[in-house]
Write a structure and sequence with these properties.
The complex is a heterodimer. By secondary structure, chain A is mainly β. Chain A is built from no helices and 10 strands. The two termini of chain A are about 20 Å apart. In chain B, helix 1 packs antiparallel against helix 5, helix 5 packs across helix 6 and helix 6 packs across helix 9. Classes of the chains: A mainly beta, B alpha/beta. Chains A and B meet through strand 1 of A and helix 7 and helix 13 of B.
């Protein structure tokens, strides 16, 4: 947790998958690092108002649920439920 | 010649890179991206037209003999048509006029005519309805997704060029929306005002318009859309990112100070954000929990005055300006395009070393 900068996505690899960990005013979020539209690296996107914006085609996803809010991507972004304990962030391995 | 996805599979394979920048094994680059090394005789506004120029050139057989693969580091229609043209030279040359118009329409997001818009809509609809549902939860990397999209969509190009009506059930709704937007502009229900001195078009409408209709309504490369009088979106068109051959492009003015000013004035929930001018088609708009662009408290008159003044001042301040040029990708904070990342840490390595 201490390594996170608010509103700045941090790229990690868990179980062979690339994920982003983000801290925003709506909490700590763990989401897929790849846009389900055309595979853009979301670590290069930006976070605003509890949403992450894809850097390539501006698909906007709600961080809490992964739901697509606007833009060309009709598919949701994969999200994972983090558990925070002793300053560390855990997610269930099968969910990643 | 075969398509090989960008990434590990392409390493060591002599290739022709289309619509993106060279990798170490590239023997020929056919791209309109800024910083490209496309030979001058082939240059054109779209990568597809560049490929067609190459296919008509006397050097064609020499390069086709040296390259074993064609590749591209991202998926879009111009990249797809470029790749398909290299894989099917005679079929492509036989459809050259349509290919050029379809690539232009798709890449610059503009309406030219019905014949060329159908393949764009059909290919986009095929991708959206048939291909994208499989991506969600696939766990694929960006490169794997790009490879999957190319492999599937390449098989559909000829069909979408020659018989796009067969997929009409997938794109009819978007086409109706596009026609309605074109009609709104034609009849004056949507108002188009151009300030040619600032290269700025203002397009006001009651409802959101299709991007292709908006871009077809003006040759200005700076476009402000205003929906319902108080929802603003300012954008720099893609033409001012690539190396445009047929006309000069005005520079992009960096918008950071303007964003600061808009945020200090905004009374409604949300935050004004501008994407870096060193991205393909950056926008300035208000983001709120409802999405973007969101309704602003700033009046149209205030917004226009502020934007116009900012652009006018930026036009005489070289430090605020950006134009496509060699070395553009080295600007601070700008992610390098995937095809230029070879030799750098991969995302996976980066993640591992980050622990």
């Amino acid at each position: 947790m201490a390594e996170l900068t608010p509103h700045t996505p941090r790229l990690v690899e868990v179980g062979g998958k690339q994920l982003l960990v983000l801290q925003t005013e709506t909490g700590t979020h763990v989401v897929s690092a790849v846009c389900p539209h055309r595979g853009a690296p979301l670590v290069e996107g930006f976070v605003v108002e509890g949403m992450i914006v894809c850097p390539w085609h501006r698909s906007i996803f709600e961080l809490e649920t992964g739901a697509p809010i606007s833009g060309p991507c009709g598919q949701p972004l994969a999200v994972f439920s983090p558990v925070i304990q002793d300053g560390l962030i855990y997610i269930e391995s099968e969910s990643a | 010649m075969k398509y090989v996805p960008f990434g590990a599979e392409l390493e060591g394979v002599p290739n022709i890179m289309v619509d993106s920048l060279r990798s170490p094994d590239t023997v020929l680059e056919l791209s309109h991206w800024p910083g490209n090394r496309t030979p001058a005789p082939y240059k054109a506004d779209t990568s597809t037209e560049i490929v067609l120029n190459f296919l008509r050139s006397p050097e064609r057989d020499y390069y086709l003999g040296r390259a074993a693969a064609v590749s591209n580091d991202h998926f879009d229609i111009d990249g797809l048509l470029s790749t398909w043209a290299l894989l099917h030279p005679e079929d492509a040359l036989a459809r050259a006029d349509l290919l050029v118009r379809a690539a232009y329409a798709a890449d610059f997001g503009t309406y030219i005519d019905e014949q060329s818009i159908y393949p764009c809509l059909a290919l986009n609809a095929f991708e959206q309805h048939a291909l994208q549902p499989l991506i969600y939860n696939s766990g694929w990397t960006g490169e794997q997704i790009t490879g999957y999209l190319y492999r599937c969509a390449l098989a559909m190009v000829a069909e979408c060029l020659d018989r796009p009506e067969r997929l009409r059930h997938l794109w009819a709704e978007e086409h109706r929306g596009l026609r309605a937007s074109l009609e709104a502009i034609r009849t004056g229900r949507a108002r188009v005002t151009e300030n040619t001195e600032l290269d700025l078009a203002i397009i006001e409408s009651d409802d959101p318009l299709h991007d292709y209709a908006v871009n077809a309504a003006t040759s200005c490369l700076r476009v402000l859309t205003v929906v319902g009088g108080s929802t603003f979106c300012f954008k720099y068109r893609y033409e001012s990112f690539v190396e445009l051959i047929t006309r000069p492009a005005s520079p992009r003015i960096r918008l950071d100070a303007l964003v600061e000013e808009l945020n200090s004035r905004e009374q409604r929930p949300g935050r004004w954000v501008s994407e870096s001018v060193v991205t393909a088609h950056p926008r300035l708009q208000l983001y709120s929990r409802a999405g973007a662009p969101s309704v602003s408290s700033i009046t149209l008159e205030q917004f226009l005055d502020t934007l116009s003044l900012y652009i006018a001042e930026g036009a005489s301040a070289p430090s605020l300006q950006w134009r496509a040029a060699h070395g553009w990708e080295h600007e601070a904070g700008i992610p390098r395009p995937p095809s230029m990342r070879k030799g750098e840490k991969s995302y996976a390595n980066q993640a591992s070393s980050d622990g």
